[in-house]
Design goal:
The protein is of the alpha/beta class and 985 residues long. The chain contains 39 helices and 25 strands. The two termini are 57 Å apart.
Length: 985
């Protein structure tokens, strides 16, 4: 063990607690049992078998209220692996559940035996027929697919609110629809073809003309069984009529029996049955969608009504006017959404009885948009709207920013309302559908039922389609609360079925919480046909038992998870998983959701239990060390949970008092540290140029093993040489701004050459030159050496050092800018974020006052807004690819990067897979495997084409991307200077 390796005990929860009833038991502390682990390792390879207790726990939770511990987690890479897993399960009598994003709300992504992760190695989209169709792998998120399709003016039909995280495979397996899909744009209606693996291992491609012939040869009994069921259903006119009626409204409860009516052959029937089958019939390995036009002319309004029933009564009018979406939100939902950035604060005081409709029209052209707006205006004249807050306008708008804010509030329903629930309560999310003309009655009945059972009413939904969503919060550790939930469910199911003849699941699929009520909705005859269908396709019951079909009347109460209180920053988490696609360590160790899930399991355990010890032992590396600390999870989370901040807090907890003192000492003497670092970089560069890169890497690796990997950086050949000791000469007189070169740009040199091998200026030289050229000269203070944005200490959790440097930089900046008279232009996006926002909590009260007077501007913003309008571009590159940094995302500066790049290049590309590179200052040198994992998808996309320029705006991120792609990334400011340099200079 390294000398300074932190003790896992430092992260032990320091609270007195009783073991939770649903805690993982001690017998699971050693992880996957033998011989299961050894057999699967031999079958697939060790890297595809996750067996530690921490692995099992982090996969035990999803966005649902349930929690089941798998015996093992497998990470297959291809169909051969899938077939091997299914063959093994058949031979050993084991059960298999497939899991992609884990955003499903009813426990479909959880298993008690073999759980198979089909997200990690299953991403990718191929655009076909100029966008008319798209071949999409199942682990691809809906957002990622639509981002690619948008270039062709197309999009997918299904549009679930969880598009940022949910995967296409999961959307198909649940027939998830969303705001606009209804019954005509969902997966069942827009899938052109599927490729799937049956429980037997047989692979079926429904687009193959010979598919039926091959299936009959491989699975004669299955084919005969499907055709027999089809004949039986079609012979029953009453049942046929009932099936058609059930799918006249949204319905995902049970299996798609209309597949037997719509499909003529076994393959066609299977194609329909696979949609909404929740992984119980097979594994969907590939989809081909018929895409839909992306109508870009959008008009929307958020309209406020005195009551939910009044809002519901207005829905049919907007449907008739041609609205593509009519979304309803009740008062509780509106008030809770104020936790979402950008939602008006005065919504917090809205009356409880208030409700709102989000109405949207989309058209392909101006004429169509005007026609919709006239129809909407006619509807508005007949409405009695209210203005319960000053921010309410009750007006239609074309403004994209305003519309995005409306949708952000609507899509945050589950997480925003769930995040505001009482601490320690479990969240149940239900959805159901009624005929749209019964929506007002259904709203009224639901609210009464919720109130009578002691639940706060919180309702939102796709009102245009009669589809409502509601939430229930209760304490799963209290038997009385569980029984209250059960009593509600019994009455709720009776209400939906008996009074409204509705669907108990409209788009979230059956799952564990509605499986016991399937027969209540469908009746005995249809339900038994579903059981027989399962028997025909999966006779040994290998796939996802108890997820769609379950004869246990209390199955919905089994496996309910308790929610123990954890650190305040993470306590509101409902484990939705929206954060996961943005996380740099997603494919390496853990995600933000999993970090919280693991922490919660520690809190369920008795102090000192074997399970807690196993979790603590893994948590240091898997959660804390490999967190990039970029906090993009905060941007993705609808309630702004910053798991990166929690990990930084844990880093602080692991520090000894001596380490904190040393860190503070480096801050106090940073001028010497900075100069020493520059000398060390220069020495390393000199040795490396003489062929010593391998020697330097070996020496630093030895030092890391001896001391601590999280303290000693590893030498990377891609590291540049040292920056010049002297910064460019500037004068204060006449300066338009104070220019602050970040310490990273004072230590590391910029790129050695520009396009075509032309000599490149340093970033500082480029900023000074281009500012002067635009008539907006900048001044570099003579005493910037020894100052820093404090991110070095902040990212590592060194609070004392952070406070020292935070105060120093603010005091210095206040003096440089003459008390905030001039803007402070910072040339690294992470440093801009650090000075503008992250230092604030660590400042003294006096310095917080000084900070309020500062105007901190990122160099991208300065160049795009102040310099570019005054510059002449003389030479543009042919093409440029951009790497927007995570700090740009936090600052909202990505568009400025694009503006600068478009001035410098004819064609500009932002990769669809662009994300945080995880270099994170020096973390890419401390854990290079983190950057490797974080950049893999983006690098593959970048390297699929050749570009003339590779641009970003943070030196360490540029180094990380150069390491990932092999191409020299440089600051967009350097490229701007080159492009605007007069000929001959």
């Amino acid at each position: 063990m390294p000398l300074l390796e932190p003790e896992p005990e430092a992260l032990r929860p320091g609270t007195a607690r009783e073991p939770a009833p649903d805690r993982v038991t001690d017998r699971s502390a050693t992880g996957t049992p033998e011989p299961l682990r050894a057999e699967l390792t031999a079958l697939l390879g060790a890297d595809k078998v996750l067996w530690k207790i921490s692995d099992l726990v982090r996969y035990a939770s999803d966005a649902s209220p349930y929690r089941f511990l798998p015996r093992v987690v497998l990470v297959p890479e291809d169909i051969d692996d899938i077939s091997a897993i299914l063959s093994y399960a058949h031979g050993k009598g084991r059960e298999v559940v497939f899991r992609a994003a884990g955003t499903s709300l009813n426990g479909q992504a959880q298993g008690e035996d073999i759980l198979v992760d089909v997200r990690r190695h299953w991403t990718g989209i191929e655009v076909l027929d100029d966008g008319a169709r798209a071949r999409i792998r199942p682990g691809t998120t809906v957002l990622r697919a639509n981002t690619t399709l948008a270039r062709y003016g197309r999009l997918l039909g299904p549009d679930p609110a969880s598009a940022i995280a949910c995967t296409v495979g999961g959307v198909v397996a649940n027939n998830a629809s969303g705001m606009t899909a209804g019954t005509t744009r969902n997966s069942y209606r827009t899938l052109a073809s599927l490729t799937f693996v049956l429980p037997s291992g047989t692979v079926v491609d429904t687009a193959d003309p010979a598919a039926d012939e091959e299936l009959v040869r491989a699975e004669p009994k299955l084919c005969a069984g499907l055709l027999a069921l089809k004949a039986e259903i079609e012979a029953d006119e009453e049942l046929t009529a009932r099936i058609r009626a059930k799918y006249a409204i949204k319905n995902t409860n049970g299996y798609r029996l209309d597949a037997f009516l719509d499909g003529a052959t076994p393959v066609q029937i299977l194609r329909g049955l696979m949609v909404g089958s929740e992984g119980t019939f097979g594994f969907i390995s590939e989809t081909v969608f018929d895409t839909l036009p992306l109508d870009r002319r959008v008009t929307s309004a958020l309209l406020f009504f005195p009551s939910l029933t009044a809002a519901a009564a207005a829905v049919p009018r907007f449907n008739e006017a041609g609205a593509i979406a009519v979304e309803v939100m009740d008062g509780n939902t509106l008030r809770a959404s104020v936790s979402v950035k950008g939602v008006p604060a005065d919504w917090a005081a809205l009356p409880r009885e208030t409700a709102a409709l989000l109405v949207e029209f989309r058209a392909p052209d101006e004429a169509g948009q005007e026609a919709f707006e006239e129809a909407a205006a006619e509807v508005m004249r007949r409405l009695d709207l209210v203005v319960p807050a000053a921010s309410v306008t009750n007006a239609f708008t074309r403004d994209a920013g305003t519309i995005a804010g409306y949708w952000k509030a609507r899509k945050a329903f589950v997480t925003a309302v769930g995040g505001s629930r009482p601490s320690g309560t479990t969240l149940i999310t239900e959805d159901f559908a009624v005929p749209p003309d019964r929506l007002a009655d259904a709203c009224e009945a639901l609210l009464e039922l919720q109130s009578r059972h002691g639940f706060d009413a919180a309702v939102a939904g796709h009102a245009a389609h009669g589809n409502l969503h509601f939430l229930l919060a209760f304490d799963a550790a209290l038997p009385a609360d569980v029984e209250r939930y059960d009593a509600f469910m019994q009455e709720f199911c009776a209400l939906v079925v008996d009074r409204f003849d509705g669907s108990l699941k409209a788009e979230h699929a059956t799952g564990r919480n509605i499986a016991p009520f399937l027969e209540r909705e469908w009746g005995q005859r249809a339900t038994e046909l579903m059981w027989r269908t399962k028997q025909v396709i999966d006779p040994e019951g290998v796939l996802a038992p108890r997820i769609v079909l379950d004869r246990d009347p209390r199955a919905h109460l089994r496996g309910l998870k308790t929610i123990p209180k954890v650190e305040a920053v993470a306590d509101p988490c409902i484990e939705c998983g929206f954060c996961e696609p943005t996380c740099p360590s997603e494919d390496l160790t853990t995600t933000p959701r999993q970090r919280i899930v693991l922490r919660r399991e520690m809190m369920r355990q008795a102090d000192g239990s074997p399970v807690e010890a196993g979790l603590l032992d893994a948590y240091g590396y898997d959660a804390v060390d490999t967190c990039a600390g970029d906090s993009t999870c905060k941007l993705a989370c609808p309630v702004g949970i910053d798991t990166g901040a929690m990990m930084k807090g844990f880093r602080h907890r692991r520090h000894t008092p001596r380490e904190e003192r040393i860190a503070a000492l480096t801050a106090k003497n940073f001028r010497v540290v900075e100069a020493s670092a520059r000398l060390a970089v220069a020495a390393g560069d000199a040795i490396g140029k003489r062929g010593g890169d391998r020697l330097l890497a070996s020496v630093t690796r030895l030092a890391r093993r001896a001391v601590r990997p999280d303290l000693v950086p590893e030498w990377l050949p891609q590291l540049p040489g040292s920056a010049a000791r002297e910064l460019p000469r500037t004068t204060r007189a006449g300066a338009s701004a104070v220019y602050y070169p970040a310490c990273v740009n004072r230590i590391f040199a910029g790129p050695e050459a520009g396009p075509g091998g032309t000599p490149a200026l340093s970033l500082a030289e480029a900023v000074v030159a281009v500012s002067e050229r635009a008539g907006k000269p900048v001044w570099i203070p003579g005493d910037v050496a020894g100052t820093c944005c404090a991110t070095i200490w902040h990212s590592k959790g060194y609070d004392a050092g952070n406070r020292v440097m935070a105060d120093r930089i603010v005091e210095a900046a206040w003096g440089w800018t003459a008390g905030g008279t001039l803007p402070l232009v910072v040339d690294a996006s992470s440093c801009t974020l650090g000075i503008a926002e992250e230092v604030v909590p660590y400042l003294s009260e006096d310095n917080r006052e000084l900070h309020r007077e500062l105007t901190v501007v990122d160099s991208l913003v300065w160049a795009a807004g102040e310099l570019l309008p005054e510059l002449t571009v003389f030479e543009r590159a042919g093409s440029a690819v951009l790497h927007p940094t995570c700090s740009m995302e936090h600052l909202g500066d990505v568009e400025q990067l694009r503006v600068l790049a478009e001035a410098c290049a004819e064609e500009v590309t932002v990769p669809d897979g662009a994300g945080c590179c995880a270099f994170a200052g020096d973390r890419g040198m401390l854990h290079k495997e983190l950057t490797d994992a974080a950049t893999a998808k983006e690098a593959a996309e970048v390297n699929s084409l050749d570009y003339d320029a590779y641009l970003s705006a943070n030196r360490m991120c540029e180094i990380g991307m150069e390491r990932a792609t092999g191409h020299p990334y440089r600051s967009a400011l350097i490229e701007l200077e080159r492009a605007t340099r007069p000929p001959g200079r």
